[in-house]
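User: structure tokens for this one?
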Amino acid sequence: MEQFALLLGATFNAGTVLAIAGLGLLINERAGIINLGAEGMMLVAAIAGFATAVHTGSDLAAFAAGAGVGAVMAAIFGVLVIWLNTNQYATGLALSLFGTGFSAFVGTAYTQARLSDRAKFDIPLLADIPLVGPALFRHHPLVYGAVLLALGLAWFLYRSRPGLVLRAVGESPESAHALGYPVRRIRLVAVMTGGALCGLAGAYLSVIYTPLWVEGMVAGKGWIALALTTFATWRPARVLLGAYLFGGVTMLQFHLQGEGVQIASQWLTMLPYVATIVVLVLISRNPTWIRVNMPASLGKPFFPGG
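Assistant:
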């Protein structure tokens, strides 16, 4: 039971990176924009956050740097695909490739850097409860922030007027434009917000979760976060659930290795990606279900007045 509690706690920690990034990409896609550049944005944000933490010693400054870098990269992507009408898929892939190379170049000077000892965030009294304490009440505040973010986003999308407008833009930008809504600006704000959250996830990865800088340390988490939006049928609560599911699969490999299970480490490393493929294959067996839940204008360019 003690090992299970530790595994559960590690699952929440690992799932937070996927949850924050996945919720950011969900905002993008609800506005009708698909951004395949999450991996690159998270990598650049990871080195930006880590470098900021090294030089300032402030985690908050590191998070701000990561979110800011993610928002700027997303803004560039947004201008290209929203105003210049470049292909969303090709532009996103280019952004991901750029981020991978740029982060490796900039991060060379920080591969040997180390952060100061991380503060512990135990909730008084609750953290001392046997089994439950280590599993639920000894996490960084951002772990709980991811849960609040999912709940807040669900309320925003389904209970607030701006959220309904955002969904309308994702479903039928022509109709939203005819009603007088600035579709392009709404999409740009959504893209930048999503980029900021991807950046925050990258900074959390390098500053809190690891904490260190290694080239390519995102290791496919941006792609898994992208797959999460489809897995969750574009619903925030399901993104959170999916993030913890994939986080649990990721941590299971380390748990099995620690228990001495005689399985090649390469097979265990493959687990999160195999799980992603299996889930997407199962979902793809019902294309009608995806079509009903997917924003109707996802990935489609919008030409106002055209």
